[in-house]
Every structure is written in structure tokens, then in C-alpha cells.
Amino acid sequence: MNIYSPMLLGDSSNTDGEKNHVLIILPICYQRQYLWRVKIIIRYYRLWKHFKNWKLYLAYKCGLTTAAPLLFETRSGVLVEVPQRLLQTFKEIFMDECYLAGLKKKIPPGATIIDIGANAGYFTLFAASKYPGASIMAYEPVPVNFAELMRNRNLNKSHRIECFPLAVAGHCGEINLSLDASDSFTTNATMLTATSKTADSLTVGCVTLQKIFDDHRVARCDLLKMDCEGAEYSILYSCTPDVLVRVDQIAMEVHQGSGENENIEALDAFLKRQGFQTARRPVGMFWAWRV
Asked: Is residue 11 part of a domain?
């Protein structure tokens, strides 16, 4: 078994201004440690980049404050309330920038952004901070999550954020969600078959992407963010071409389903047929964009 592998560290320039690649040979275990450290450094750089009071996070991690929830303020003035239970979700969106990683096009000024599966609203707030002037519509059907979403929205009334206590699906009307009834916040209310012994059922109202576009006169959606625990298939497969042609970019987390075509390969093929280019990561993150 080969435990050594070449690793590209970066570029250097000679006296003539020509760039040379710096390539070293390291044991794979050391490479993993190096990449892990780089990831941590990038995380904390983004924390500093996004927030005025970034030291609050460090104080909390070091046990120097027990304030709950934590209240962060971005450098553009967006306030973000973070209960301890949702700190991991906060980190994924603001410190890992998980939804931006595969975007290929800049979001234009005054963009229209739709957040399906908004949860507590962290991506909505991230978008409001990063893209000032954007119009953002956030959809979250689980009542306890929607209450937290509205708390965050009410902290930022000057921003163009609209919140709706609805699921988005392949039809209008009602839909049953499975969620963990023992959890005070849930990040995984799902349309897929529940496996947890503590799973409960919740009936919520739902709309289609077509209805959202029609009701709000959306001529163009610059970014469609989706984290809807299995609903992504029915949402997108039910769209007619005249709906999808109005979507410029998609950033979403894809979940393996049990039905036909409820998998990332089928979704990838479907979106390519609709004129999108695509990219994905093994963890289930998926992006699509129009050229």
C-alpha cells in the first residue's frame, strides 16, 4: 500500500516572474493533518471576515461566556441569533460557506434569492449580509424552526426578507413531514420515510415553485437555495421548462431517496437536460448554473 503521495502546496515565482508549482512528497496521514489545519484557519478567517463581534465565538468556545443565545452582528449590520443547539448549522453556513463553494457566477446587485428549507434563517441572513439589496424569500414549514426564523427576521427589518410558514413541494395543498418529536429544533424534517423511533408526523401547507413565481411575479431567480430533506426531487421534477428557465443558479443539499429517480445521478441528468451545468461534492452538496 502506498502511504506517500505528492501534494501541491502552492505557487512560487522566480526572478523572471515565472510561476513554479511547489510539489512535495508527504505521508498521506500528514497531508490529512495539514489539510485539516488549513480548513480550521479558513474557518476562523471567515468568522473574522463576516462578523464585527467575532471574538464572541472564541469567548464561547473557550468557556468565557455562557450567554445564550449568542447574538452576532455581521460587518454589514445583519444580526444573527444563534441558540447553542444550532451552532453547527451556523458554522456550516457562515464559516464553511457550504452553499457558496460550487457557485460559478456572481450574484448580481438587487438579486432575487429563494431559500427553501430556511430552518432558523442562517442562509437567509448570510445572503442578506453578503448581497445587500437582495430580495429574499424564505420558506420553512416546521413551526419551531419558523419561530426562530421570524426572530432573526425581526432583528433585521430593514432588509428585504419575506418569510413563509410553508413547505415547497411538487403540488399545492398539504403535505406530511416526518420529524424528530424529541428535538427542540429540527434540521431534518423530511418527506422521505422516517426511520427514527421518535419520529413524528406533521401536516403542513405546501406550494410549488411555479406558484411562488406566479404569486410574487418572479421573472428571474438569481439563486435558488434548497435544503428540504428529500423534497428537492418533487420540487424540481414537477417544474415545467418555462419555470426552470427563470432560475439562474441552484445551491442545494441532495438526499438519497427510495423512489425512482430520487438520487443525485438522476437529478444531475435532469438538470443537464434543462440546460444547466452542474457540480457536486461527495457529502451531498450540489450546484447547477446556466451559462
From this structure: no
Closest by CA position to 207, among listed 189, 225, 234, 188: 234
> Do 102 and 167 share a structural domain?
yes
Q: Same structural domain for residues 127 and 260?
A: yes
Are 166 and 151 found together in one domain? yes
Burial 224-236 (b: 16+ CB within 10 A, else e): bbbbbbbbbbbbb
Which of 62, 95, 128 is where one domain is finished? 95
Sequence-distant (≥ 6) Cβ neighbours of residue 64 within 8 angstroms: none
Residue 68 has what pLDDT? 85
One-character DSSP codes across 121-172: SHHHHHHHHHSTT-EEEEE---HHHHHHHHHHHHTTTTS-EEEE--EE-SSS
Task: Judge if the upstream peptide bond of residue 108 is cis by omega within 30 degrees of 0.
Answer: no
pLDDT tens track for 3-57: 555 554 444 444 444 445 555 555 666 677 778 888 899 999 999 999 999 999 9
Q: How many domains does the chain have?
A: 2
Residue 19 forms part of a structural domain = no
Taking a C-beta distance cutoff of 8 angstroms, is the pair 174, 202 a contact?
no
Q: Which of 153, 226, 243 is nearest to 191 (CA)?
A: 226
Candidates 215, 265, 218, 255; CA nearest to 235 is 255
Closest CA to 54 of 68, 74, 40, 69: 74
* Separation between Cα atoms, residue 252 and residue 270, nearest integer Å: 15
Give the confidence band of 232 by pLDDT, cuts at 50, 70, 90: very high
Structural domain containing residue 268: 98-291
Residue 4 lies in a domain: no
Task: For residue 49, give the amino acid letter.
Answer: K
Residue 6: count other Cβ atoms within 10 Å of its Cβ.
Answer: 9
Residues 233 and 143 in one domain: yes
